[in-house]
Amino acid sequence: MHGQLTEWTQDIADVLARAPGRPQLQALIDWLKRLTSTDHFSLFIYEGQCAPLALFNTFPSDLRQRFVSDYQAGPYLLDPFYLACVFGTADGLYSMRRLAPERFSATEYFRSYYRYLALSEKLGFIISLGEESRAVLSLLWRRGTAPSTEEERQLLRSAAPVVAQVVRLAWEAYRQDGHHVVDDLNQKVDEVFQQFGRGVLSPREREVARLLLEGHSTISASQLLRIGPGTVKVHRRNLYEKLSIGSQAQLFALFVRQLKGV
Length: 262
Prior knowledge:
Blueprint: H1 2-17, H2 22-35, E1 40-47, E2 53-57, H3 61-72, H4 80-86, E3 92-95, H5 96-99, H6 108-112, E4 119-128, E5 133-142, H7 150-195, H8 203-213, H9 218-225, H10 229-242, H11 248-259
Antiparallel strand pairs: 1-2, 1-5, 3-4, 4-5
Helix pairs in contact: 1-2, 2-7, 8-10, 9-10
């Protein structure tokens, strides 16, 4: 017992001795791999209404598009982990099984995105970073691999304070490394999104306009808004008429003009 505690303490000291950011995150991942046999890790930051920031991941290049870029394009809005962050779920380690609604396989998130990830299990550390910022460090098991045991999950729960500290230090390092410029731009874009079409378009038309500007198709917009594709087309036609435009390219040009303050 004493030997195990000494080793555990030394491992934590080795992690915290690394420079905050990628070096410390990699050391943390290497340590967690010794606690449980997982396949992939990902760290997303959710800040306000901005799309999630992929701060760190261990995906090979052939999986990064599916797990990162495709997720950021819209599916994250239906992710039980993202919703848990939005609705104030307490910090800690959670499984997808615990956070997902009943009949998860029948949900839009599962049918349109999650099932294509081919996972057998997903665990995630939810970590508060500030007033409107939260992080999720996910541990992912490929389909066909054995999920974590209760003993492994207990070890991971014990590791939560160290995980939270390393993630918070990584977030601070990211923001201090000149990335506040990107944050400011994201904030400005979001502010323009909030004001775009106000006083001219109906609330639903503004929602459709935002999804079109974000690159969503009629089908994906209908799925996110839970309305039929035909209804989306009607809203699109009406908002085009109200804005005196005739295409999605003109809609984007109008948004850029407003972003520039023209």
